[in-house]
Here is the input.
Amino acid sequence: METNVQAFWLGHSAVKLISPEGKIIYIDPFLKDNPSTPDELKEVSEADYVLLTHGHDDHVGDTLEIAKNTGATVVGILELINLLKKDGLAEDQAIGFNKGGTVHFDEFSVTMVSANHSSSYNGQYAGDPAGLVLSFEDDLCIYHMGDTNIFTDLELYGELYEPHVVLAPIGDHFTMGPEEAAYAVEMIDPDLAIPVHYGTWSPISVDPNEFKEVLEEFTETKVLIPEIGENFLG
Ligand code: NI
Ligand code: MN
Here is the structure.
């Protein structure tokens, strides 16, 4: 898997990607109130895109502030985007779409797939929760599962999108735990799996090595447990 895309885990479900031509993409930028995110990574001065998996606080995070300060385009499921527009997201920075759909940008595209979870935003219905499949020009495919448990469609996503990298929630309590996550990722069969959505608070304090041990025992998928702020594609 050769790529010039850079990818940094920022704690919890938040990820920053930098395309080969320097476009900056945030997924689920929950940073300021995220106890895992170091201070130097909390401030976002530049962003081109913010991609959202669902409406929960620990995913929408600083989206409105980032959009306002950087002019970034915010992309997510229709109902959530409509709620964000009511909270001040500019019309020309908002892209709402739905599952099965793909939105194309200059250097990458993003396809929305299912996640098995719940979703709301400030107590309001925010559409379904989702996973996001990002395809870059150099063929790199990254699948951020969002918050989910295991479900059989994952095997179809593996066949259809053939993601190289999967970001999987493993923290238990709000999502699947390490062992279930290993089985879920086995169904997708990527080259590389990155555990996320753990360690942020006590209910999701699990050992990512449990995920790594189960997955690497039964599959060819390599598991990397990155430091926060480290380029896990480097
Ligand atoms: Ni959630
Ligand atoms: Mn969550």
In short: The radius of gyration is 16 Å.
